């Protein structure tokens, strides 16, 4: 059989032809789009051989930095806005429902379960005491009893317990009461940098970006018959709200953390869950 003359123009179509027998329809769709976009990217950028190697080296390092404790590829997805894009395509908050945002890398399975009102902070040095309360409701305002609220945050030093190799701290699981209410004590969230000592940190520096996230508390709320909600509450007036390193801020999630008479910062928020489609 005659071997066809190589053609740069026809190369993309040839690669696509080579995967034509892929049985898994979704995989075929994903691979087709990936090949098309990757070739278009290379045609657009026209990398030199050295630049292409540099790109491969960067991805190789990103892999080497990824371990059970550190996920550099997720961090890359976060800092390039891809995590928020995937979230936006998958979670469309209906009228009145609470908006979602990124999960981030610091959630831990099996955080301790606490009674309502408990303090998730174990050390005085964790930060300024804070009281957060509110409710979990459906779109019609009906309270959702027994909703599970999985909550986590960093300390005043800008670090999560897992980053310090510590036992569970500044995280906990609560259940809403019969009127859908919840309440817990924590510390007032502070801004902090995303892990930036690896390849993603170098990318941020090279593109003149800072690694900071505005002050926030993480929530993962689940309840039978409702869509799970992964979100944050951001501190009104906090630094970096307009330039979050992972593009996670939505104005609807920014709330007041006011100083009460007893010296506690207090915040209140009513979460609205969407009904599960199933
Ligand atoms: C976080 O908020 O915990 C976070 C989110 C994305 C990347 C790094 C940290
Ligand atoms: Fe966080």
Q: Could you estimate the helical fraction of the residues in percent?
A: 25-40%
Task: Identify the strand order in the major beta sheet.
Answer: 3-2-7-8-9
CATH homologous superfamily of the largest domain?
A: Aromatic compound dioxygenase
Number of domains: 2
Instruction: Compute the number of strand runs.
Output: 11
Strand content is 15-25%
Distance between the termini: 54 Å
Question: What structural class is derived from the secondary structure elements?
Answer: alpha+beta
Describe, in plain words, how this protein is organized in 3D.
The protein is α+β, with helices and mostly antiparallel strands and 278 residues long. It is built from six helices and eleven strands. The strands form three sheets. It has a five-stranded mixed beta sheet with strand order 3-2-7-8-9, with no helix packed on it. Strands 4-1-11-10 form a four-stranded mixed beta sheet, with no helix packed on it. Strands 5-6 form a two-stranded antiparallel sheet. The structure holds benzoic acid and fe (iii) ion (FE). Fe (iii) ion binds next to strand 7.
Layout of helices and strands, plus pairs?
Elements: H1 8-18, H2 25-45, H3 49-65, H4 72-79, H5 82-90, E1 129-138, E2 148-152, E3 171-175, E4 181-187, E5 192-193, H6 199-206, E6 212-213, E7 216-222, E8 229-235, E9 254-255, E10 258-259, E11 265-273
Parallel strand pairs: 1-11, 8-9
Antiparallel strand pairs: 1-4, 2-3, 2-7, 5-6, 7-8, 10-11
Bound molecules: benzoic acid and fe (iii) ion (FE).
């Amino acid at each position: 059989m005659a071997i066809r003359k190589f053609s740069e123009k026809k190369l993309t179509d040839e690669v696509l032809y080579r995967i034509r027998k892929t049985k898994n329809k979704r995989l075929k769709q994903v691979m087709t789009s990936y090949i098309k976009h990757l070739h278009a990217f290379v045609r657009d950028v026209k990398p030199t051989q050295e630049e292409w190697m540099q790109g491969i080296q960067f991805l190789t390092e990103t892999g080497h930095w990824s371990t059970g404790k550190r996920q550099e590829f997720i961090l890359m997805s976060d800092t390039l806005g891809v995590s928020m894009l995937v979230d936006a395509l998958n979670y469309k908050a209906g009228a009145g429902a609470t908006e979602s945002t990124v999960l981030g890398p610091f959630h831990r399975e099996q955080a301790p379960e606490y009674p309502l009102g408990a303090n998730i902070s174990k050390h005085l040095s964790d930060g300024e005491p804070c009281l957060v309360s509110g409710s979990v409701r459906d779109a019609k305002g009906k309270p959702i009893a027994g909703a599970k609220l999985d909550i986590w945050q960093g300390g005043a030093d800008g670090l999560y317990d897992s980053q310090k190799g510590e036992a569970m701290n500044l995280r906990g699981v609560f259940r809403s009461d019969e009127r859908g209410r919840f309440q817990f004590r924590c510390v007032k969230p502070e801004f902090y940098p995303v892990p930036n000592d690896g390849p993603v940190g170098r990318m941020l520096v090279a593109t003149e970006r800072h690694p900071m996230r505005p002050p926030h508390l993480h929530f993962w709320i689940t309840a039978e018959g409702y869509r799970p909600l992964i979100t944050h509450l951001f501190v009104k007036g906090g630094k970096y709200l307009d330039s979050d390193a992972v593009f996670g801020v939505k104005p609807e999630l920014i709330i007041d953390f006011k100083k009460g008479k007893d010296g506690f910062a207090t915040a209140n928020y009513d979460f609205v869950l969407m009904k599960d489609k199933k």
